[in-house]
Write a structure and sequence with these properties.
382 residues, alpha/beta, 7-stranded mixed β-sheet, 3-stranded antiparallel β-sheet, 14% strand, binds pyridoxal-5'-phosphate
């Protein structure tokens, strides 16, 4: 017991090994810290990893929140418009949407994927709807076909918040390699990190041009000149823009992480299966509805059959040196979104009261996973 407390298991532990530090040091030594060749290289390597074809491109940003904000701008949503979002996601996504002045409308999720329920989305569509946000919870693809069908019927754009799903596949295709606007996060605890960072994927060359302007304070950037480090002074400013570009040091760190992503992904899948094997059949808990085959898991989540157990359960884990978390509480409860229109959110309410996130790292020992699983079981098998 005392040993366990001396060696607590954190919820996240980003891999920050020597190659990551070397990459950052090299970029710092170089002295060009802004948008430049490293940003371009990171984007090209991301395009390769995501298996993008034809005109589909990656535009990096300095966070996923920035990426979702720009995706919402690209979708044409602003004051007076509505964007339908699941309440069951990280509020960074809601904030990014409402930053445009558009109003969030909350849809429910479905049990099968814990992503937006297409029926609930459909029920909320009005003349004011501009876009639908789809979230791939924990890395599990949501019902993209159902959501796209609802969107296509009304000519709406689909913004995918794929912050959890870097590397996951939907019907064999990487998330981001199909569809409309897909946003990724390379934040501190995500599957790969650039410390802070994000990206948008779009199939539309016009979107790419606009995104290059939007992320760089509205400047008509000759992006290829920027990537070659040519500072330009004779630019025009054509729209409201933001300071959202990804600099050289985060890009270098992102590249060093991307070089290891296959190991991270395989490990995370293996750890989730190990957890499943150790926890299956434990009375009082439910496991996620996936075999992890096409899922690159960002978090490992269990559901408690009795939500009233959650505070005691999390305290029990804490006393055994095991950190846990809650993803997510349901943004419709936050004061800022209190008055927002919503569908019946029964599944969101149930799920958000039952979920507990357990530690998942890019590198974990079997004994760490066994300790976490043992702490979980000891609560329910008392
Ligand atoms: C982490 C996260 C974000 C925000 O990403 P940042 O890169 O930190 O801005 C958005 N949505 C979801 C679901 C996330 O988990």
């Amino acid at each position: 017991m005392i040993n366990e407390l001396a060696d607590p298991i954190p919820l996240y532990r980003p891999y920050l090994g020597q190659e990551v530090k070397d990459a950052a040091a090299l970029a710092l030594d170089d002295g060009w810290l802004g948008l430049g060749p490293l940003t371009e290289r990171f984007e090209l390597e991301l395009e390769r990893y995501l298996e993008l074809r034809s005109q589909r491109r990656v535009v990096t940003t300095n966070s996923c929140t920035a990426a979702i904000h720009l995706a919402t701008v690209i979708a044409g949503a602003g004051p007076g418009d509505e964007v339908i979002c699941p309440a069951f996601t990280y509020v960074a996504g809601h904030q990014a949407v409402s930053a445009t002045g558009a109003t969030i409308v909350f849809c429910d999720i479905e049990e099968k994927t814990l992503g937006a329920d297409p029926m609930s989305v459909q029920a909320l569509i009005t003349e004011r709807t501009k876009a639908i946000m789809a979230v791939h919870y924990a890395g599990m693809p949501c019902d993209l076909d159902g959501i796209r069908a609802v969107a296509d019927e009304r000519g709406l754009r689909v913004i995918e918040d794929a912050a959890h799903a870097f590397g996951s596949r939907h019907q064999g295709a990487r998330i981001g390699s199909t569809g409309d606007l897909t946003c990724f996060s390379f934040g501190p605890v995500k599957t790969i990190t650039s410390l802070e960072g994000g990206a948008i994927v779009t199939p539309d060359p016009d979107d790419v041009q606009r995104l290059h302007e939007l992320r760089l304070i509205g400047v008509t950037a000759d992006t290829s000149a920027r990537y070659e480090r040519n500072r330009m002074w004779d630019y025009d400013v054509v729209r409201q823009g933001y300071r959202y570009h990804l600099g050289a040091v985060p890009a270098a760190i992102g590249l060093s992480q991307l070089a290891m992503v296959d190991t991270f992904a395989t490990n995370r899948q293996r750890y989730c299966r190990t957890y499943d094997g150790l926890l299956v059949g434990t009375p009082g808990i439910q496991l996620m509805p996936t075999d992890w085959h096409d899922v690159v898991p960002y978090i490992y989540v269990i559901r408690l059959e009795d939500a009233a157990n959650r505070p005691g359960f999390m305290q029990h884990l804490k006393q055994r040196g095991v950190a846990s978390g809650i993803h997510f509480m349901g943004a419709h409860h936050y004061s800022f979104y209190e008055g927002n229109r919503r569908d019946d959110l029964s599944i969101t309410e149930a799920v958000s009261a039952e979920v507990v996130t357990l530690p998942l790292h890019p590198f974990m020992s079997d004994s760490t996973i066994e300790r976490v699983a043992g702490a979980v079981r000891s609560f329910f098998e008392r």
